[in-house]
C-alpha cells in the first residue's frame, strides 16, 4: 500500500471519528485513564526498581548489616568492628557509615526565627564512598572527624536554598546549633536525598562528622555501614569474605558485641522490601489495560455494526480487506494516540502527587516522575492498545456478510452471531479481569483492617507528642535530671493535661537493643538474651496508655541516689523467669554494670511494627541513665491537638524551647505512618479495582443494550402475542447473569492461582479467604444486574407496533 493511500485512509478515519464525536470522546477518555494509570505506576516501578540508585556506579555499593534486618541494633555494628573490617577486607574498596540512632533535633539560632532541623552524623568518607560530590565546599577532614574535634557541618541543598538563598559565601560561615558554633564546610547537590534512600518519609538538613573512636565504640552497635566493591569483585565474594572476617572478630574480641557480617546489594536493601508490592501494582495496572482494550474493542465492534452498509458499499466499490483493516487500525491508533496524550497529562499529575506523599514511608518515592523512559512507555502503550482494539472490528468484517447487508439480509446471519459471540467473549474477559483485581484489593484491604485490629499495647487516642530536645546538650546527669524535672513540672501544671512523660524512642520508630541477662543465670556465648530498651520518665506509661500488669511505675524518686530499677514487658518476664514472678528479680546489662531490680511488669508494645510481636522490652528511668540521645514528650489530654500544642508551647517557652507546629504529632499519626506503605498499596489497588468494575459494568451495559436493539423485532412480537413485560425483563437479566457468572467463574479460578503473588503482603488472613472470594462474586453480580437492568427495563417497555413497523 502506498504512502498516499495510507494517508488517505488516515484522513478518512479522522473524518469518521469526528462525525461520531460522542463515541470518540468517550473512547479517548477511557484510553486516557487507562494509559495514565499505567504510566503513573510505571513511574513508580521505574523509580523503585528499574532506575539505578542516584550514586556513582551504584552496582558496586553494598549494605553491610550485622546479623539481621529486624531492628537497628541488628543492622548496625560497633565502631571497632567497622574499623577492623576496613583494615582487613580485600574485596571492598572502602567502608563508610552513618550513626543510625540519629534524630536529635538541632536548633538553628541566629538570623530569623529559631528553627528545628534534623541532622545525621556520618563517617568522614561517607559521601566519597557513595560517589556524591559537593555542590560547593568540601567534605570533612580527619581532624574534624576526631573525638572533640573542630565542629563542622555540611548543609543539605534544600536548607541552603531555603534558609540561605543559595548564597555561595556560606562556606566558612559559622552557624549556632544547639548553642554551639559550627563551621559550614560544604553543601550537597540537589540530587542527593539521604532520606529517600536510607530513611523513607524523613527529612534531613544537616550532616555532622561522626568520630570513629574508642569513645563511640563503647556506645555499642550504632554504625549503619555501606561499602564499595573493588572493580571486578561480585557481591557473593564480598559476602563470603565479610562473614569470615565477622567470625574472626567475634572470636578475637570478647569485649565487643558479636558481628556476623551480612552483605547485600545496596539497591536490594533500599527497595527490596517494597518490590513485591510494586510488582503487584504493575500486574494490577496490566489487568486494567487489558480491560480497557476489551472495553474499547467492544465499543468499536458496536460502532462497526452500525456501519455495516457503509463498509459494504466500500467493499462493493473495490476496497479489499486490507484497506478495511488499515482503516480500522487507523481509527484505533488515532483514538489510543489521543488517549495517550491525555493520559500523559494524567500521569504527570499522578506522579507529582505520588512523589509528594511525605507521609508514605516508601524508599525512592520522591524520585517518581514522568521522565523520558515513561514517555516512551506511553508511546508503546498507545501503539499496542490501538492495534489490539483496532483489530477487533476488522477481524469481524467478512466480505460475504458485508454484501449481504446491502440486501438487508443480515439479521440473524452468521455474521451477527459471530459479532455477538466476540462481544460476549470481551465482556466475559472484562468481568474475569475485574474479578482478579477485586480479589487482590479485597485481600489487602481485609489485611489492613486486621493490622489495625491488633493490640498495639498503647492507646493512641487523645495522645500528642513533640520533641523537646534542649537548646544545649546535657553535660552531666544532674543537668539532665534538672531539665526533666522542669519540663514535666511545667507540662503537668498545664490545664487540660492529664498525664505526661518523656522517652528517648517512641513506638514504631527508632529502636535499639541491649543485653538483658537474668542475674544468677549462666548463658553460653552468643546465647545471652537481649531486649529493646526505652529510657523513659515517670508518667510515660500512663501517658501512652500502656497497662501496668504487676508492680508499680517509676516515680520522681528513682534517681541515681536510689536503687537501680527497671520495668519489663510481659514477654520478657516470661522469657527470663518462666513460671516465676518477675517483680523483685534482677537484670544485668542495662545502662550500667550493676544489676537492676524489676519493680513492675507492663503490657507488650509493638515497637517495631504493628505486624510484628513485641519481643523482649525493658524500660529504664531517665534519671538513672544519662544515655538519652533525644527527648520526646508524650501528653494525654481531652483538648484538641491544636489546643494542646498552643498550651505546651506557652508552658515551655520560658525554658527557651521553640516548638514548631510541625513537631507536634498525635500518636495516631505515628500509627498511620507505620502502615502508610500498606495503605498506599491498598488505595492504588482499590482504585484500579474500582476503575475495572466501572469498565466491566459499561461493557455489560453496552453489550446488553446492543443485544436488545438487535432483538427488538423479536421482543415486539413476543409482547404483541401477550408475553408479560416481566418475562422479557427476566430473559434480558438472565443473559446478563449468564455472562457475569462465566466471568466470575473464570476470574475466581485465575485468582485462586494468582493470590500467591500477594500472600507475602497479607497479615492475619489466608490468601484464599472464602469471605473475600464470596464478596467479590456478590459485588460483581450486583454490578452486572444494575448494568443489565436499564436495557431490560427498556426492552420490557417497547411498543410492539413501533417495533414491528421499525422492521
Structure, described:
The chain is α+β, with helices and mostly antiparallel strands and 807 residues long. Strands 14, 15, 16, 17, 18, 19, 20 and 21 form an eight-stranded mixed β-sheet that branches. A six-stranded mixed barrel has the order 3-4-9-6-8-7. β7 (174-177) and β8 form a beta hairpin. α12 packs across α15 (399-406). It is elongated and about 105 Å long. The model is unreliable at 399-406 and 408-415 (pLDDT under 50).
Q: How many individual β-strands?
A: 23
Low-confidence segments? 399-406, 408-415
What's the helical proportion of residues? Answer: 40-55%
Broad shape: elongated
Radius of gyration: 34 Å
Structural class: alpha+beta
Query: Please, what is the average pLDDT?
Result: 83
Reported for the largest beta sheet, the result is: 8 strands, mixed
> What is the CA-CA span between the terminal residues?
40 Å
Question: Helix count, per DSSP?
Answer: 26
Beta-strand content bin = 5-15%
What attributes characterize this protein structure?
alpha+beta, 807 residues, six-stranded mixed beta barrel, 26 helices, eight-stranded mixed beta sheet, single chain
In brief:
The protein is α+β, with helices and mostly antiparallel strands.
Strand-helix topology:
Blueprint: H1 3-19, H2 21-50, E1 61-65, H3 72-75, H4 79-88, E2 92-99, E3 105-109, E4 115-122, H5 126-130, E5 136-137, E6 152-155, H6 157-164, E7 174-177, E8 180-187, H7 194-198, E9 206-209, H8 214-217, E10 223-229, H9 235-252, E11 262-265, H10 266-271, H11 275-306, H12 308-316, H13 321-355, H14 372-396, H15 399-406, H16 414-453, E12 463-467, H17 477-492, E13 497-503, E14 513-515, E15 517-518, E16 530-536, H18 540-544, E17 548-551, E18 565-569, H19 570-576, E19 586-588, E20 596-602, E21 617-621, E22 632-637, H20 641-652, E23 665-666, H21 667-674, H22 676-710, H23 712-720, H24 725-754, H25 770-796, H26 800-806
Helix pairs in contact: 1-13, 2-11, 2-13, 2-14, 4-9, 11-14, 11-16, 11-22, 12-15, 13-14, 16-22, 16-24, 16-25, 22-25, 23-26, 24-25
